[in-house]
Amino acid sequence: MDYQNRAGSKFGGGGVASKEATNADRRERLRKLALETIDLDKDPYFFKNHVGSFECRLCLTVHQNDGSYLAHTQGRKHQTNLARRAAKDAQLGKRNEEGAFTGANAIAVRKNVVKIGRPGYKINKTRDPVTRQLGLTFQLQYPDLAPETAPKVRFMSAYEQKVEDPPDKNFQYMLVAAEPYETCAFKLQAREVDRREDKYWTWWDSDSKVFWAHVTFKTEREERYSGVPGLAPSKGR
Ligand SMILES: [Zn+2]
């Protein structure tokens, strides 16, 4: 520390710590306080990025070390955002699709993950020029998702889901899950999904943080002859 420039020194007496020193003390106090109350492994907002610095996913701030992050968690900005998020979650609680959709099978859902909202999305209808099969291309935007966390897709029948009651067998649901985002469900016609490689695929573009999913439906004819050798391709050929 540069004692020459310390406030008070030039007037001949120590005593008064500089503003800088006070801030350092304060940060250290806050860091200790935070360490007592926060387990970084369980903090849903704590994120170590690929360049080795730390991010608060709630406030979208960057910190050079964990101490600085911890001090941040005690600050007004983070506390305000926490309160705001809690209020929002309470409001949305009843509409949390994931809980409702997975119902009793929600074992895999970690309770300490706080959801940060739904991804933006685009859907394009497609038609295979050769087979005339109808399809859909989904584009979901996950700007705050960690690059190594690829979203997951799961199809669910009308009877498996718990959101729409009574279930309508003319529909099925495509779920896209990527924590800490809320799980999205798209309601699709109940026609069988063609699982061949070029007809059904997903791709996580970790650079632009966009998740792509392309779904092609079997035609009525293909559904009818599905599994009959030589007539229509079966699942996962
Ligand atoms: Zn924060």
From TrEMBL:
> Where would you find this protein in the cell?
Nucleus
Q: Which PROSITE patterns match?
A: ZF_MATRIN (PS50171)
List UniProt keywords, sorted A-Z: Metal-binding, mRNA processing, mRNA splicing, Nucleus, Spliceosome, Zinc, Zinc-finger
State whether keyword Zinc applies.
yes
Residue numbers spanned by region Disordered: 1-24
What biological-process terms (Gene Ontology) are attached? spliceosomal complex assembly
For this record, an example GO cellular component is:
U2 snRNP
Principal location class:
nucleus
- What protein name is recorded for this chain? Matrin-type domain-containing protein
Give the originating organism: Cladosporium halotolerans
